[in-house]
């Protein structure tokens, strides 16, 4: 489809540069696109795995993480074009429509437009069923995808969308759309690269790059059953971590440069451990809970995440990490806030100020790619500035701090009431729930909201000096 009024064409230098940035930097976090056959069809200018819509969606991602200001400025241009083309394609959607919706959904959420992003992802999940991707293509009696390669690509797209569905469910605290019992898709297998693969890499991604660079709702339950389930999940996660291939291993003693996707994988693991073990807010006053194993696991995962941040920063840019990194940062900040509350520490305690300063620095590093991060950082900085000067104010501050922890997990009460609308006692009674609500994201993480303008100059010197003391 030609768009004469649009200043960029898929094969021009700008689009190729942004596409190369995408595949060189963040492709491993966007596995709904199968790189090899996308490039094959892009080069041939025909085929089922390429469309201009998907190309411009990829260019929008490339623009969002580009280090060149002129290319970064093109983000809204490509985002608007890709979005318009997606809507035009909905009358006769294909696989690239679904892939574009997933990519654009992540972008919109990261830009603070959570309702629009949630809508795009939801449309993708619906299309997954509409296209029959939840049924293994090997069982289709009549299919346009006759080759084993085509069938495998459909499986990979399904599992990529399945993972995104679970990430969005955790992020927003909403029920997932895709369930394992409704699908019979087999596990993915290795498939051969297109014959022209190495020449495609040289032409469109990078000269002499290795062709194998990227190998590839709440229910009412009793506490005992919930604890048993949590323990089962914990055991499964630890077993999964222990059985990872050697090339995916990492620990605090790992030396040398570790691939970025390995570090990200371990960030996701420890984020999951925090989500699994963090105690409900209303139980934080219970001494047994505060001294329990769950809190200790959260502290251990926080320490691991901070080490991962340090390792990642040596060789890579945080801006290239996917949207779930916002969840990681929120979970890490929440554990620091929980630690301060449980230990009744002050902000200048080095066990609080040092990790919090590190987390806030990383938040600042990603705020341009994910403006939704600004609201979280501003909430924390406001909490620091509002610390009481006497015992009575300090006790109230701990109650207010619980409300901020509520924001980091969910928003049981509207955000305007988070800064003192309730007293400390009532503030301890709300359920923590999940991470972030749509209303909070829309009202406080929008680019147009002046409250989201991140200004760290007032509190950063305090944190840094406290961390050094």
From TrEMBL:
Domain Xylanolytic transcriptional activator regulatory: 117-196
Keyword entries, A-Z: DNA-binding, Metal-binding, Nucleus, Transcription, Transcription regulation, Zinc
Keyword Lipoprotein attached: no
GO molecular function: DNA binding; zinc ion binding
Coiled-coil regions listed: none
Top-level division of the source organism's lineage: Eukaryota
GO process terms (BP): DNA-templated transcription
PANTHER family the UniProt entry points to: TY1 ENHANCER ACTIVATOR
Protein name: Xylanolytic transcriptional activator regulatory domain-containing protein
